[in-house]
Design a protein that fits this description.
The complex is a heterodimer of chains A (158) and B (310).
Chain A: E1 2-6, E2 9-13, H1 21-28, E3 47-50, E4 53-56, E5 69-71, H2 84-91, H3 101-114, H4 120-127, H5 137-157
Parallel strand pairs in A: 1-5
Antiparallel strand pairs in A: 1-2, 3-4, 3-5
Chain B: H1 7-29, E1 58-60, E2 66-70, H2 79-91, E3 98-102, H3 118-146, E4 154-156, E5 159-161, E6 167-169, H4 207-210, E7 217-218, E8 221-222, E9 230-234, E10 243-245, E11 256-257, E12 260-264, E13 282-284, H5 295-302
Parallel strand pairs in B: 2-3
Antiparallel strand pairs in B: 1-2, 4-5, 5-6, 7-8, 9-12, 10-11, 10-13
Helix pairs in contact in B: 2-3
Classes of the chains: A alpha+beta (158), B alpha+beta (310).
Chain lengths: 158, 310
């Protein structure tokens, strides 16, 4: 039994300790946003946040997750109440098939948390591990710039 | 063919092909028949030729709501949104009054694969003509009810208005409307100059779900699976020509293979976790085993058989 905290909820998971987090998210917790892409940590479709860091859920064994917080796309908002990064992606219509998008949004969330004033080249460098085969990158970059600038605006209002 | 294909030559060739196709289809669909010229006998537009019943594609309810059915799936190309635009356009109805159902085996037609740029050509065309046929019928019914000429009626947002401002809603005309009938071949769609919804920017209806972990389809399979198995390959650290011997665990488990794949559920016992068979595997190295320069050639010629164990 491993205790996982996912999107603020604690779960007792009955799985082998070496089981990658992605299988637990999808099979046990029915959180289907994170996708199986390559299973090798090379495409980013499975990206989730571990505490505030982006990790590949397909490679991260659940045995190292005790006492840490996992955030998936579902933890950022709902269709009726999307979070700021999700709103920016919707506003820019930044998805085609959508397979890479949950990973893209999670990595973008980490970027905004760590570097709220990231430059264009910093955005591109930070997002480089996540691949999109549809060709939505330009819209994704636009959405990230929108999310960053809206974060600044929110700070000013505060 | 000794000369290498250049990208330019390839694009030039395919470009010509695409143009030839689109011209033929445009005429075949009869989008813009010349006024006063009787159309020649031709198959029904799009997949109406396979499923001619109007209510295979579109259904109007007494509350004025319309449900549209497509046998094509939304794979991220935006067709679900485009189908709504097709129906809204020909029905003079707001998109919010339309429920769009795509690729549901219990409800929609079977339009085969969603591939090859056929969704708008076959399904979008059928929806557009079915909607236009339904709209024409509603105008005829309204003309009879209001005792005016059909050509004097105007429709917008699901309401038909007479010159003297009397109105009748689509929903009020459902009583007595036969929707389970064949498409009428004389149906005409709007000319492109009159389009108000199609060809205009429109937020894709599938995107909010894709941004929040909702169910979705991708090419080839539904992205939501009930249980995903873990699987991995075991290969020797040297050349792919090597063979592995494994004590057989089932009749599906080969005793000897060049590579070995394993699948396991996350419920598997801790002993089946990363390399369950490694202790009992013995790799028989080929003579060229350690010559890395020969790897690509060996990979091409030898390939590998795969076994599976649960």
């Amino acid at each position: 039994m491993v205790t996982l905290t996912v999107n603020g909820k604690r779960h007792q998971i009955d799985a082998a300790p070496a089981t990658p987090l992605l299988y637990v998210l999808r099979n046990d917790l029915k959180l289907n946003a994170a996708k199986f892409g390559c299973g090798l940590g090379q495409c980013g479709a499975c990206t989730v946040l571990l505490d505030k860091e982006p990790v590949y859920a397909c490679l991260t064994p659940i045995s190292v997750l005790e006492g840490r917080n996992v955030t998936t796309l579902e933890g950022l908002g709902t269709p009726d109440n999307p979070g700021p990064v999700q709103r920016a992606f919707i506003a820019e219509q930044a998805a085609q098939c959508g397979y890479c998008i949950p990973g893209m949004v999670m990595r973008a969330q980490a970027l905004i948390d760590h570097k709220p004033r990231a430059s264009e080249s910093e955005i591109r460098d930070y997002m480089a591990p996540n691949l999109c085969r549809c060709g939505t990158q330009i819209r994704i970059l636009r959405a990230i710039r929108r999310a960053l600038s809206e974060t600044h605006t929110a700070e000013v209002v505060r | 063919m000794n000369a290498p294909h250049s990208r330019r030559a390839f694009l030039a060739g395919t470009g010509a092909l695409v143009i030839a196709f689109s011209m033929r289809d445009a005429f075949a669909q009869g989008v813009m028949p010349a006024p006063g010229v009787a159309p020649a006998a031709k198959p029904s537009p799009g997949d109406l030729s396979k499923y001619p019943r109007l209510d295979s594609w579109i259904r109007l309810e007494a509350n004025g709501h319309v449900t549209v059915f497509a046998g094509k799936a939304e794979l991220g190309t935006g067709v679900k949104t485009a189908f709504i635009q097709c129906a809204a356009e020909e029905l003079d109805l707001s998109a919010s009054s339309i429920t769009m159902i795509t690729a549901d085996t219990a409800l929609t037609t079977d339009e085969g694969y969603t591939a090859g740029s056929h969704s708008m050509q076959d399904c979008g065309t059928a929806i557009r003509y079915a909607a236009a046929d339904l709209h024409a019928t509603l105008i005829e019914l309204a003309a009879a009810r209001l005792s005016v000429n059909a050509t004097d009626l105007k429709s917008a947002n699901g309401v038909i208005t007479a010159p003297d401002a009397r109105k009748v809603s689509y929903g009020e005309l459902v009583d007595g409307l036969d929707q389970h009938r064949d498409f009428r071949a004389e149906t005409r769609i709007k000319p492109s100059s009159a389009l108000a919804v199609m060809g205009k920017p429109f937020d894709r209806v599938d995107i909010p779900g894709k941004l929040t972990g909702g169910e979705m389809y991708v090419q080839g399979h539904a992205a939501r699976r009930h249980v995903a198995l873990r699987a991995w390959y075991d290969r020797p650290a040297t050349a792919p020509g090597s063979q592995v011997s494994i004590p057989p665990r089932s009749k599906n488990c080969p005793a000897s293979s060049r590579s070995f794949a394993t699948a396991a559920s996350s419920r598997s016992s801790p002993s089946v976790r990363s390399r369950p068979f490694s202790p009992c595997m013995s790799w028989k190295m080929s003579r060229a085993g350690d010559d890395q320069t020969k790897l690509p050639k060996q990979s091409d010629t030898q390939g590998g058989a795969a076994g599976a164990a649960a």
